[in-house]
Amino acid sequence: MNWANRITLSRLALTVFFVVTLNSPWQYARTTALVIFLIAGLTDFIDGEIARRYGVITNFGQLMDPLVDKIMMAAAFISLVPLRAVPAWAATTVVARDFLITGLRLMASAKGQILPAERLGKQKTSWQIITIVFFLALLSMAELRYVSEKSTWWVRAWTEAGPVLVWITVALTIYSALGFAWRNRELAADSNESLQQLRSLADDPAEAAQTRELLMEDFIRLLADGAMGAVYVTHNLEEAVRLADRIVVLSRRPGRVREVVAIPLTRSERGDINARGQLLSLQNELWSLIREEAIDAEREVQDA
Fold first, then answer.
1. Pairing between strand 246-250 and 257-262?
2. What is the pLDDT of residue 196?
3. Among candidates 217, 197, 216, which has minimal Cα distance to 207?
4. Distance of CA 207 to CAs 201, 211, 212, 216, Å?
5. Bridge partners of 237?
6. pLDDT of residue 274
7. Are residues 36 and 128 in the same domain?
8. CATH of the domain at 79
9. Which of 151, 161, 250, 283 has the most CB atoms lying inside 10 A of its own CB?
10. Does a structural domain hold residue 203?
């Protein structure tokens, strides 16, 4: 792990210390929380600068940097709610936006894509930091007795300037979320298309069987290249005798090896029509090994 990624993870630890400190009864706790938050914000600049300057930008960093930022911002806004600095609806908006963006990033990651932070998202984060630091600074000044919480300018800053910053932050939060979701809307469209394909397979057993046959053929071609080996788990006896070199038969709970059945035919020979009888015999042999436990399992399902 490079130093940029280590600094990113250190920001996560600082976030934990920040939350604990801000919500503790210690003397100067709020001032300490302000210092921790400023250090955490500085690490956000440092890790990005290191990654760009030394060319160590990684997929891990592109994913974790904005994710840790979201955790830090969400934790700060939530912690300010009991102090009556930020209204609960504003904190909820910030957290909901972060859940949405994180969900899109996870969908992209599942498809081998990385969605890095965008410029508008960074501007939104900047305003969030300004808002949080503003309230923390006011709390710190009152704690250090530089000013009284009853003084006119402190009250006006808390009740007038503070809400303005909150509204700007919330507006940018919502706008950036809608823009990010719109620019990456194809992720949801692809997911819907995949879901429709699965539904069509469920509604059409013939198509499902054809798809399974094509997948098995692709898998056999991969194994034939000799560049990979695989452990294939299946409950389908036909798949087992078509694909395997050796079939390991497991018992039910606890799962233990009952028997290892070797397949005497090569995969190319199994495609011959004359081999079907032998393959069927192997399936019957496997069925005899698991029959009693399969029947017991079916009874459990029916009695459940």
1. antiparallel
2. 59
3. 197
4. 6, 6, 9, 14
5. none
6. 79
7. yes
8. 1.20.120
9. 283
10. no
pLDDT tens per residue, range 94-151: 999 888 887 777 777 666 666 666 777 778 888 999 999 999 999 999 998 888 878 8
- The owner of tokens 């920040």 is 18
Sign of the alpha-carbon dihedral angle for 79, 82, 83, 88: positive
Q: Indicate the SS3 state at residue 162.
A: helix
Give me the domain span that covers residue 103.
3-190
**Structure token pair of residue 230:** 């695989």
Q: What is the per-residue pLDDT for 58?
A: 77
Number of Cα atoms under 13 Å in the Cβ half of residue 14? 23
**Tokens representing residue 108 in the block:** 């992209």
20-39 pLDDT, tens digit each? 999 888 889 999 999 999 99
Q: Is residue 79 located within the same domain as residue 171?
A: yes
- The type of residue at 140 is S
Instruction: For 48-115, give the secondary structure using H, E and C.
Output: HHHHHHCCCCCHHHHHHHHHHHHHHHHHHHHHHCCCCCCCHHHHHHHHHHHHHHHHHHHHHHHCCCCC
* Residue where a domain terminates, one of 166, 190, 214: 190
The number of folded domains in the chain is: 2
**Structural domain includes residue 249:** yes
Query: In whole angstroms, how far apart are CA 88 and each of 75, 82, 93?
Result: 13, 9, 9
Query: pLDDT value at position 134?
Result: 95
Helices (H), the chain: 3-22, 29-53, 59-80, 88-110, 119-143, 152-156, 162-183, 185-203, 205-224, 237-243, 267-270, 276-303
Cα(144)–Cα(140) distance, integer angstroms: 6
